[in-house]
Amino acid sequence: MAERVTVGRREPHATDALFDTLGKMAHDGTALLHAYVGAQGLTLVAAPAGPGAPEELVLGPGPFARPTRTGHQLFWGVEHALPAAVWHHAGRRHPVRGRGLHLMPLGPVRGDVSESLAYQLVVLGDEIHQVRLRAGYKRRHVVEAMAGAEVSSALAVAERVTGTSPVAHALAFSLAVEHALGLAVPAADQQARLVLAELERVTSHVGDLALLAASTGTVAAAAEWLRLKETLLRFQAALTGHRYLRGVVGPGGHRRPLSGALSALPALVAAVRQQVDGVAGALEATNSYLDRLHGAGRLPEYADGAVYWTGFVGKSAGLRRDTRWDAPYADYGALTSDLAPVAVNQPDAYGRAWVRVGEVRQSLTLLSRVMEAGPPAAASSRPPARCGAGVGLGRVEAPRGRLCYRVEVRGEHLVAASITTPSQLNWPAVPLALEQRNILQDFPIIDASFSLAVSALDL
Amino acid sequence: MFYRRWLMHYLKRPVVTSFPGRSDPDAPARGPLDVTANALFRQSLTLRQLDGGSCNGCEAEIQLLASPVYDLSRFGFAVSPSPRHADLLLVTGVITEAMVPVIRTAYDAMPEPRLVVAVGACATEGGGVFHGLPGVVGRLDAIVPVAARIPGCPPSPNDLLAGLLAAVGRPAPTAVAR
To answer: Which of B8, B23, B26, B51 to substitute to test the interface with A, most A CBs within 10 Å?
Structure first.
């Protein structure tokens, strides 16, 4: 095994000192979160804790936040939002020194079908030694689009932050607006929200598993996962009129009723469960698949407690954090009392896949529980008039992890908004995981095992 | 172990969708496509997708084109990792300022003849809900010539297939009974 070589003249990186600090303080999560937030120039906004809920934190722009339009923000190895001219002419060429070390630029046009993000891999032969991410190519200024907009048009923007999880974004936005204005939601709509959120989670995870199987060359399994995803998408189109469930969830109640296809949900859940058991079971017995996943992209131990990894990245590192349990919303409180978040202490590509298979099974259980208790009434309620003003917070467990919206509302208009997406919290894990003596051939697998959205990082 | 499942599938009926999906419940009729038909590509076509600031919705649907339900390869289409091997560039998303030089570079790298297809509401309607925001250019045809526009937010894989076939001047196959 080659001796670890350091890059000869490595550029001073704003995050290096922070990582050192974090490594030393790995036992104290709150202090670390404050350090992380302080390094980003953000402030912590304390949310009103629900019954039995731990202190909830959401990141909002603080007084020292750097300008994001023209300047750049650094956090955790992610160089963020550089203006086009700067990165394109100067940014791509970093000086790399050291015997045998090469800089391998990858992106922003990369992979078969992928979002725009540039990797800079410093490699020694096949071994990846240092990884930098260069984001900011696809910054759409989502938060600026929401500020000052009407609630309905801000909701349309929220649904397009990440196109594959619009329910989570619409739900977090709606919870925040409801919290700000004190709106009540009918019980039927609460139930339907749970159905939509869990359907979205199943679809998203199945799609992720398809990409992971494809990256390991298990094309037959990838085809089966993709076919299952298409089945789910068609059901979703029949249920709501949109393949990705857009246009239903809204503040105070549904904007559109669910269709009669809801009665077919129990049959779909049974069929999906059978298919998931079949494919996941066969993959568990396929050595060529398992060999590629075990140990690939293992997150270092010092990072486990230090960083607020969320979603399946956190759960695969043994962190039992899930908003559905920590701060229940919709109808989760009653339905999840005898369940626990799926978690395993194996922070590698296999662990992340394992957690997602477990979450798919758990979501199917939740869906069948809702339908056993009586399907949600299909009738849509007229959203109550929005009046008054206030600041509200909405937290949901999106397919990729915790998603927070903080909004300031005045009447029908949004004064300001800030968003913390799971992808923002988890992208810093990707360079960390890649740098742990992985080889280039593992890169697509590790990339697919995180399956994070760039659109939710660039915002 | 997967080989056993794989072999078992050969005993079953194929799942490929009938095209363009007359029996497909998920193919709402759309208006006529804005297409400059191009009869240059008769046998095969290599695609490259380029994300100009999308929400990942269009990418998710393009990825589904490779699924057994749509099976892009039966039309002679393939996806390329590099624009240098691509005949057709699928551009998605609002076009951000940072992506303008990237799109131009990718287009210049493509061999002639080449086509650009704008995919999704953002790329075809000047940014969609993000129109007019800082850093959002919105207009793709100001950067590269656009041969076809496939609307939809996101366009379903059926729409994508119909648009791609129209873009290369091929007739849409008649629907096959399942």
So the answer is: B51
Secondary structure of chain A in the HEC alphabet?
A: CCCCCCCCCCCCCHHHHHHHHHHHCCCCHHHHHHHHHHHHCEEEEECCCCCCCCCCEEEEECCCCCCCCCCCEEECCEEECCCHHHHHHHHCCCCCCCCCEEEEEECCCCCCCCCCCEEEEEEECCEEEEEEEECCCCCCCHHHHHCCCEHHHHHHHHCCCCCCCHHHHHHHHHHHHHHHHCCCCCHHHHHHHHHHHHHHHHHHHHHHHHHHHHHCCCHHHHHHHHHHHHHHHHHHHHHHCCCCCCCCCCCCCCCCCCCHHHHHHHHHHHHHHHHHHHHHHHHHCCHHHHHHHCCCCCCCHHHHCCCCCCHHHHHHECCCCCHHHHCCCCCHHHHCCCCCCCCCECCCHHHHHHHHHHHHHHHHHHHHHHHHCCCCCCCCCCCCCCCCEEEEEEEEEECCEEEEEEEEEECCEEEEEEEECHHHHHCCHHHHHHCCCCEHHHHHHHHHHHCCCCHHHHC
In chain B, pLDDT over 70 holds for what percent of residues? 78
pLDDT band at B25; cut points 50, 70, 90: very low
Separation in Å, CA of A74 to nearest CA in chain B: 18
What is the least distance, in Å, from the CA of A207 to any CA of chain B? 8
Q: Select A144-424's CATH number: 3.40.50.300, 1.10.3720.10, 1.10.645.10, 1.25.40.20.
A: 1.10.645.10
A112 shares contact with chain B (CB less than 8 Å): yes
Is pLDDT of A174 > 90?
yes
Instruction: Note the pLDDT tens digit of each residue in B145-176.
Output: 988 888 888 888 888 888 888 887 776 654 44
Q: What residue ranges do the domains of chain A occupy?
A: 14-139, 144-424
Q: Which domains does chain B have, with CATH numbers?
A: 33-167 (3.40.50.12280)
Where does the pLDDT of residue B1 fall: very low under 50, low under 70, confident under 90, or very high at 90 and above? Answer: low
What average pLDDT does range B107-119 have in this prediction?
A: 90
Residues 387 through 446 of chain A touching chain B, CB cutoff 8 Å: none
A138 with B63: Cβ contact below 8 A: no
